[in-house]
Amino acid sequence: MYSTHFFSNSPNSHVEASGNFQDIGDSHRAVTEISYLVNKKIINGVTSTHFVPDREVTRGEAAAMIGRSLGLNGTKRDTGFKDVGAGNMASGYIVELVNKKVISGYSDGTFRPNAKLNRGEMAILINRAFNLGGTNSSNSAQILMDKGIAQGMTDGSFGTNVTIIRSDFAVFLARTLNADFRVQSGDTSIFKTTQYVNVGSTTLNMRSKPQITNSPSNVIAKLTHGQAVSVASYTGNWAYIKVNNLKGYVDKSYLQSKKPSAVLPAPPPVAGNDITVIIDPGHGGSDPGADGFGFLEKNVVLNVGNHMKAYFDKTAIQVKMTRTGDTFPSLTQRAQFAGKYGGDLFVSIHANAFNNSANGQESFYYSSKAATNPYTNQSKALSIYMLGRMQEAWPLVNRGVKEGNLAVLRQNTVPATLVEMGFIDSATDIKYIQSETHRKNMGRALFLATLDYYYHYEGRTDLAQYYSVAGSSPSKRLH
Questions:
Q1: What percent of the chain has pLDDT over 70?
Q2: Other Cβ atoms within 10 Å of 192 Cβ, number
Q3: Alpha-carbon distances, residue 391 vs 41, 297, 478 (angstroms)
Q4: pTM greater than the 0.85 cutoff
């Protein structure tokens, strides 16, 4: 029997349990695919002991399973559908899939999460979710059959209007995600087509699974220009290939049928194109942060963050922001952002408040050896340069560089700093905070401080050219 720890797939269930799937023995036709999906926490049991393979799949359950397979945010929330409340276990996935136009509701404002899903609807959902190309139940079903993902019924039809059961849904989803499960015919080898890698002077990542979301999947090999690969199938933009005895996925846009010509030596790298800076405007959404004199922290820091980004946009240095609008990523989501999106440096922007009785600027880093973030010295140096440039921009009280036990620093995995630009409830500091000109100057200061860190601490003298976009030059070595 297959043993696991799981949550029920039922959208309204909160039961956690462990045990054996007594109805999925080693001889069950779908045991391999079900085990594969359970291990990846995509599909679960109905009770602590039963998978219930013949139970019909509902729209809510389908949304949850497809959402998990895509790595979407399943946090429960309001959906806008009158029959799917924020407490529904599938609510988060429903919102995400509706936004991605994978699934939709009905004209009466309902989603009908408990309605049974038929095989034709399943085919459309999988085609939309994984960009396989189908637009209706007929051609979506044909695509699934052509790819060896689905099979027809015993009567020769696809069974478009037949309600799909849990074991069949598991099989089709597993085959979509992993081509090793797909149906083969004729030649026992599914890797029949030879293609060649065309990447010029760079390399092509071969991954353990399609990189469907922004979250990177494991890179298992690096392929070189002109290398021959054997292709079995395509899933959206991804090709399932074999090189020697290694199987995995590559972006199919880098494959071609003819061997490419040799390439000239690569030109020198563009300065800074290997760097990604994460800008984290604090608070947002339902969390306004501090307030004073009619100004909210969440709006001020987003404005400064946008100015900071505007300077980076004039360089080859990449920038990603934890929020670009009035939203509220959680502290954990912010701390994990750099790791998730390939960031190299993290700057969290804030404004302070203290009963109209304090003012000035400060910056923070985290130094405990127990922290996830091992970059204590780098974070401290970054914080020093941040405060130095903030003092140049706004001549406020210098409150110093401090150690701070703050989640976005403590849980981060790259050099990270949190800056407090000033006190929003201070009659002195607000003169700068309320001014668009001064806020732009602060964005410039944070941009320059980042360059200072890389130029002095990391020794990246190739970045010196970018000081000119802000009409400045490297600061003195401060740390």
A1: 90
A2: 11
A3: 49, 19, 13
A4: no
